[in-house]
From TrEMBL:
Top-level taxon: Bacteria
Gene: dapB
Positions of NAD(+) binding: 12-17, 45, 101-103, 127-130
Catalytic activity: (S)-2,3,4,5-tetrahydrodipicolinate + NAD(+) + H2O = (2S,4S)-4-hydroxy-2,3,4,5-tetrahydrodipicolinate + NADH + H(+); (S)-2,3,4,5-tetrahydrodipicolinate + NADP(+) + H2O = (2S,4S)-4-hydroxy-2,3,4,5-tetrahydrodipicolinate + NADPH + H(+)
Lineage of source species: Bacteria, Bacillati, Bacillota, Bacilli, Bacillales
Name of the protein in question: 4-hydroxy-tetrahydrodipicolinate reductase
Species this protein is from: Paenibacillus nanensis
One GO location term (cellular component): cytosol
Length: 268
């Protein structure tokens, strides 16, 4: 790769994750902030979001505006699930490599976006979780499910989270399903006295979503076997914890073609 700085656009720059991304980009000399999007912030300097001096990047109201005005290499998107798919498509249309932290994609959408990235000859990443500890939790959980196939996932997030279950829990469930023996758990005659009591059903096991103020992001994968349980748990305390992963992703997407789903696939 050349010594040129990687030009980064940030979508959702005023959001809680977006602000961390703006800060991370401004603090890495090998990256250059070239555009920032916030639908409701107005045309202010992006540095305002993070208490930094003027960056010269004026916030755009739409992604199209931002990408037509700047030659970005990479778009980092932490916005809302309803906009994630169209944002990713827009980035690819502009030939900008998407690094997407926003959750809420269907497998069909991911497949289509992968094809579009390949057609454009650009790399992309959708990662439900950029935290290294969370990735390890998922890997360990998949490993444990080979030996202890009775499993339930409990994920905890703040009460304002829009989607349930979390993207991380779905990703964990997918990884477990790839290696766990097929098994429909629980009593076949089980009845829910209150609807939803047993959580969401996924390939024979359950995912439970807890939503409470004061909680940031946690997940527990509980395995049951004869006379024993095993719990694999990850706790996130701060959004800054995702940034080393986002930083690696911004650099890695410059090096391949196609859309990768899951940060674990680009972690060395
Ligand atoms: P947030 O604080 O609510 O920020 C979301 C931002 O998105 C808002 O600032 C809003 O801009 C902007 N926005 C809304 N609609 C938009 C659109 N159509 N186009 C562009 N921007 C739009 O949320 P957050 O906590 O930062 O989380 C954002 C997303 O990241 C969520 O889906 C969350 O689940 C996900 N997340 C992922 C990870 C991971 O590791 N992958 C980690 C944490 C969170 P305005 O302020 O201008 O209205």
């Amino acid at each position: 790769m050349s010594n040129e700085r990687i030009k980064v656009a940030v979508n959702g720059a005023r959001g809680r994750m977006g602000r961390e991304v703006v800060k991370m980009v401004l603090e890495d000399e090998s990256l250059q902030l070239v555009a920032a999007v916030s639908p409701s912030a107005g045309p202010i300097d992006a540095g305002t979001f993070v208490g930094k001096p003027e960056t010269g990047v004026i916030v755009s109201a739409t992604l199209e505006q931002a990408l037509s005005g700047a030659k970005a290499d990479v778009l980092v998107d932490f916005t809302v699930p309803q906009a994630a798919y169209s944002n990713t498509k827009t980035a690819i249309d502009f030939g900008v490599r998407p690094v997407i932290g926003t959750t809420g994609f269907t497998p069909e959408q991911i497949e289509e976006l992968d094809e579009l990235c390949k057609q454009k000859g650009i790399g992309g990443l959708i990662a439900p979780n950029f935290s290294i500890g969370a990735i390890l939790m998922m890997k360990f959980a998949a490993e444990a499910s080979k030996y202890l196939p009775h499993v339930e996932i409990i994920e905890y997030h703040g009460d304002q989270k829009l989607d349930a279950p979390s993207g991380t829990s779905i990703k964990t469930a997918e990884l477990i399903s790839q290696v766990r023996q097929e098994l429909r758990q629980g009593n076949p005659n089980e009845e829910e006295v209150i609807e939803g009591a047993r959580g969401g059903y996924y390939n024979g096991f359950r995912i439970h979503s807890v939503r409470l103020p004061g909680v940031f992001a946690q997940q527990e994968v509980v395995f049951g076997g004869y006379g024993q349980t095993l719990k694999i748990r990850h706790d996130s305390y701060d959004r800054a914890g995702y940034m080393p992963g986002v930083n690696v992703a911004v650099k890695k997407v410059m090096t391949y073609s196609g859309l990768i789903y899951g940060f674990e696939h680009i972690m060395d």
